[in-house]
Amino acid sequence: MKILAIESSCDETAAAVVEDGKTVLSNIIASQIEEHKKFGGVVPEIASRRHCENILDVVTQALDGADCTLDDIDAFAVTYAPGLIGALLVGTSFAKGLAMATGKPLVPVHHIAGHIAANYLTDGSLKPPYLCLVASGGHSHIIEVLDYTKYHVIGRTRDDAAGEAFDKAARVLGFPYPGGVHIDKAAQQGNDQAYTLPRPKITGSEFDFSFSGLKTAVINIVHNADQKGEQINKNDLAASFQKTVSEILVGRTIAAAHEYGYKTVALAGGVSANSSVRGLLESECKRNGFRLYMPTLDLCGDNAAMIGCQAYYDFLAGRRADESLNAVATLSLDDIAV
Q1: CA 20 to 30 Å from 265, out of 132, 282, 287, 311?
Q2: Is pLDDT at 338 greater than 60 in this prediction?
Q3: What is the C-alpha radius of gyration for the chain, rounded to an integer number of angstroms?
Q4: Cα–Cα distance between 83 and 61 in angstroms, integer?
Q5: With contact defined as beta carbons under 8 Å apart, do 108 and 6 qualify?
Q6: How far is CA 273 from CA 52, 136, 180, 268, in A?
Q7: Alpha-carbon torsion 25, 85, 311, 133, what sign?
């Protein structure tokens, strides 16, 4: 079964052809990073306009790369939630048009479910149930993956997501957008013990996250130094910040695995490319006797291959959409039903 998938939830216009949920025949991504870099982050209106300009070419390249035509495609899939509403609307509208024109099924895919599914493309031996840490620019979740289409969120951020905190800390340190990769590089040259940073906890919700206070602490350190005419060691602060975020994410994930009785743990989302998060989670899983799955670096960020993979399982579960499908900016995995 060949699925043509479209992803446009933020600032990447992506399309892919995935066969039987496991074989990536093509995976095309048109990135807008260079354009948004001068603004220090994604400008939603610009992102939506670029999706409109890019989507036809990206879909055409995906078909060509898979040596397919629309006649060879069995179903279409699209990210419909969550994300930037204008960006999502471009993808959903285009996908609905393809489905209506060809008379073929349309599968709506939740963006976070797609990130989780990237692990199936990396290692086909991963099977539910397991526990997954999803960390990205817009999301920080600890999720029970009960089945390929059934989830239970047991921890989530109450404010900033981990990736958002990385980008905002990077901005105040003078690094360009996207900040996570620059924090990671700077941290390799720094002393991660140089600064003691806060580790916020949510009373009564031990597996939830809060990164707003940590981000603000970094901003205050930099601003206070500027006001006093002092120089800070950016590498040291980047290393201390990265270590703190990693320990918060990994510590709560390991604790949740023990609490809920999981021996298999997975990692997903853009922050899963961070060397500190990957390294610490790997060592902690090994120390606790857990089996760990992580996506390859090319599947950590937003891409359509992961959407095509998840769409295969959603399709088998009977999930379909018609012309009434609409984009949804905010939608918990707990609230989707197959």
Answers
A1: 311
A2: no
A3: 20
A4: 24
A5: no
A6: 28, 10, 9, 9
A7: positive
